[in-house]
Amino acid sequence: MNLPLLRFVTLLFLSLASEVTSQDTLVNLKDLSTEFNYEIRYATPNNFIGETLYDCAECLLRPEVAEALLQANQYFCEKGYRIKIYDCYRPLDVQKKMWAKVPRATYVGNPYGNGSVHNKGAAIDITLEMLDGCYVEMGSDYDYFGKEAHIDNYNFSKEILANRKLLFEGMRQFGFNTIRTEWWHFSYQKNWSYKTLNTPLPCEQ
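and the corresponding structure tokens:
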């Protein structure tokens, strides 16, 4: 093999290796910012299954998704709010446990089909709170499976509708899309480009 061709093959291999590695990259949001609040429900039994599903309360995301979320939180902070996080990356094995308990694709992504965007590290479940930690009413609790959680349900007070509008419009500005049945769920718009992962959360043993 001549030298120019060898260099080309080497560069091609390195490029492909870098692409494969980047497809699996997740970052811990706590390493990037201290300006979020957290209530990772699946690290507790306070969730729709009633069982602890995560061994630790960590928020992992794709680097691009984390950067967009940082920008969104800065936007809300300038308005007197901050993002409170309920869930981020979710290993596929946890998705399977959820599906075994609640096999309803309206609310739980089928891990044997397309799964959840959470399994790609490209979705977040969040709400807003005031900068001093005061509660912001959104019309239902997190992971409430019913019409009160639907974003096309307008049978709420002006205050709740205004809170939802602030959350939805703010997140959409930074590349996050809503889904109809969960006011708290936001998928990054480029989620289709990411692999589904089953990487365990980085919990200390």
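(Above: one complete record from the training split.) DSSP finds four helices and seven strands in the chain.
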